[in-house]
Amino acid sequence: PKRAAQLVRFDHAAHRLAAGHSAARVAAEIGYVDQSHLHRDVMAFAGATPTAVAVAPWLAVDDVAWAAPEYLSES
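RESULT FIELD:
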């Protein structure tokens, strides 16, 4: 649940960044403690900086951030 909530928050942030809002404003509006926490989540989910997401909003969520459940892993 925590990871899903982080992804939803990141998605909202990415849309606001793409709309031209500053990273500081987005962090405050979305509920991040500060801009560095926004930066950390954007890097984790998109593998890019907030600035890169702002100019290329189609960046996909990083597959590494969502590892397959153990039952799907090969043993």
